[in-house]
Write a structure and sequence with these properties.
Number of domains: 1
CATH class: Alpha Beta
Oligomer: single chain
Largest sheet: 7 strands, mixed
Shape: globular
Helix content: 25-40%
Order of helices and strands: EHHEEEEEHEHEE
Structural class: alpha+beta
Length: 163
């Protein structure tokens, strides 16, 4: 497995890239989780940078994308202590099953490096819906700052990475 990530703003995505991003998100959030809800969010999706990951053994055609994450620039999280966080938010992580676990740290490192280059700071936030994944973010150096319940009724854990 040799991973490469291509990062583009929503406005730069090709139709095929956007279609594959949507496929991965439906597969991960609706089919795999068995939760039917409106995944697309114009307020956030159109203001995101998409981190599209390819296994170079397979190739880098849009339909061969094995994972996607987004860094949203207008998401705000409020921690349980009332602190408001306004860093780029790492969200909507969607991966092919065979890559899901192994790519987490790879993608977080890419996100941190991108934030440093694009925004001048590696600080970022993340929201996850699966409790077993919490340890990955703690191991990466993020701190858990709160929980919330999303529009689909799922509990989410919120993490912040601050250098």
């Amino acid at each position: 497995m040799s991973l490469v990530t291509v990062i583009k703003h929503y406005d730069e995505l090709t139709t095929d890239e956007l279609y594959r991003v949507i496929q991965l998100r439906i597969q991960g959030f609706i089919v795999r989780n068995g939760t039917c809800y409106q995944d697309l969010e114009a307020y956030y999706d159109k203001e995101q940078w998409y981190m599209m990951t390819y296994d170079t053994v397979l190739g880098i055609e849009p339909q061969l994308m094995v994972g996607v994450n987004a860094l949203c620039t207008n998401k705000v999280f409020t921690g349980d202590d009332g602190t408001e966080y306004r860093y780029p938010a790492f969200r909507r992580q969607a991966w092919e099953d065979s890559y899901k676990g192994g790519a987490s740290t790879y993608d977080l490192n890419k996100g941190r490096d991108f934030c440093r280059k694009q925004f001048g700071s590696p600080n970022m936030m993340c929201e996850i819906t699966y409790e077993p994944g919490r340890q990955v973010f703690l191991n990466f150096g993020m701190k858990e700052v709160g929980t919330n319940v999303d529009s689909a009724g799922r509990k989410n854990w919120v993490f912040v990475y601050e250098e």
